[in-house]
Amino acid sequence: MTANRKPRVLVTREVFDETLDYLRQHCEVIDNQGDRPYAPEALGKALAACDGLMCSLTDRVDAALLAAAPNLKAVANIAVGYNNIDVTACTVRGVMATNTPGVLDDSTADLAWTLMLGAARRITEVERRVRTGEWTGWRLKQWLGVDVHHATLGIIGMGRIGQAIARRAVGFDMKVIYHNRKPIQPELERKANASYVAFDALLAQSDFIVLQVPYSPATHHLIGAAQLVKMKPSAILINSTRGGVVDDAALIAALKNGTIRAAGLDVYENEPKLNPEFLALDNVVLAPHVGSSTEATRQAMAMLAAKNLVAALKGETPPNLLNPEALRG
After folding, report:
1. Catalytic pick from 93, 129, 221, 271?
2. CA–CA separation, 115 vs 237, rounded Å?
3. Residue 121 sits in the same domain as residue 265
C-alpha cells in the first residue's frame, strides 16, 4: 500500500459490519450490503479500477474477469472451496488468490451429521406429516428409520472436515472407514478412529457415506450410477461438500428405484436451480448450502478473508495463499 492512496477493494456480497470496519481501516471499500449478485459483465466493470476483490462462491473469477481488472492484485474468497476461481489464470496475471480454511471445519462437520441423522430418522418427511395433520397417533411400525449407532461410516475425503466428521462418530460407537488420495498420517487416523480402505470397498461396506472432497474435474460425478449400484441397498449418501461431485440425475434414479435407501444433501448441481425431481422424494433431506452457516463461523470466514486481502495489498504473504507462484512474477 502506498502512503498517498488507500487501495480500492470491492466486496461483492453482503458481509458483517465488523468486516467492513476492518477493511475500511486499510482500504477504500466498495460494498454491496444490498446483496444484489453481480452479473459477470457488471462485476468486470465494478472491478476495473480496483486493487482487491472479496468474493463469494457465487462469483466466477476467470481469465475474462481478470482481463477487465488490470489493477487487481488479490482475490479473497469467503469459502474454503475455490472452484469458482481460476487459480491458474490468477497466477498468470500475478494475482494472489486466497480462501478461508480451518475456521469452518467444525460447523461443516456438524451439518454433515445433521443430514446423516435427519436422513436416517426421516426427520424432514415426518415433520411434514405432523404439519399437514397426517399424524393421528402412535403406531409400532410407523415411519421406521435406521440406527446410526454401531453402523459403518464411510468418509470420502479425509481432510480437516472429514476428520472432524469422523471424530464425532466415536459417540455413536460407529466403525469409521475412509478413502483419500493417500492415507492420512497414522496419528491422525488414531484420533479419528478411522481405517483406510479402497474406494470400492468403502462403497460396498458403508451404511452411511459422507462426501467431503473438493470439486474439480477429477471429482466431477465421483458418485454416479456405476458407484451407486456398488452401495448397500440400505445405504444413505450424504453430500455436504460441493455440487457436481454427485451426478444428481443418477442419484434421483437410485432413490426412486431403491438402489440406496436415502440421501442428505446440502449442495447440488447448478444450484440454486436444483433438479426439481428431488422435491417429490420423501427419502432425501434437502438443505440450501448451509454447511458453514452459523453466525460465529460466517463472521470468522469473512474476517479471515478480509485479513487475507489486507495482507496481500500491504505486500505481505496472505496466511491462506493458494498460489504462491503468483509472487514470483
Report:
1. 271
2. 9
3. yes
Grid coordinates 477493511 are at which residue?
A: 23
Is the domain of 37 the same as that of 125? no
- Encode pLDDT of 294-312 as tens digits: 999 999 999 999 999 999 9
Is residue 1 included in any domain, yes or no? no
pLDDT tens profile 10-32: 999 999 999 999 999 999 999 99
Residues with Cβ within 8 Å of residue 134, at least 6 apart in sequence:
none
The total number of structural domains in the chain stands at: 2
The answer to whether the beta carbons of residues 116 and 208 sit under 8 Å apart is: yes
Q: 164 is in which domain, residue-wise?
A: 105-286
Supply the CATH number for residue 82's domain: 3.40.50.720
Looking at 13, 168, 179, 242, which residue is catalytic? 242
DSSP secondary structure string, 253-318?
Answer: HHHHHTSSSEEEES--TTTTS--GGGGG-SSEEE--S-TT-SHHHHHHHHHHHHHHHHHHHTTSPP
DSSP reduced 3-state for 155: strand
The single residue of 179, 261, 289, 298 carrying the catalytic annotation is 289
Pair 99, 109 in one domain: no
Q: How far is CA 33 from the centre of its chain?
A: 23
- In a domain, residue 3? The reply is no
Give 326: exposed, middle or buried? Use CB within 10 Å, 0-12, 13-18, 19+.
buried
Q: Which three cell numbers stand for residue 121?
A: 430418522
Q: Does residue 289 have an active-site annotation?
A: yes
205 and 86 co-located in one domain: no
- The whole-model pTM stands at 0.92
Same domain membership, residue 300 and residue 186: no
Residue 271 bears catalytic tag: yes
Tell the residue number behind the cell numbers 461431485, with chain if given: 245
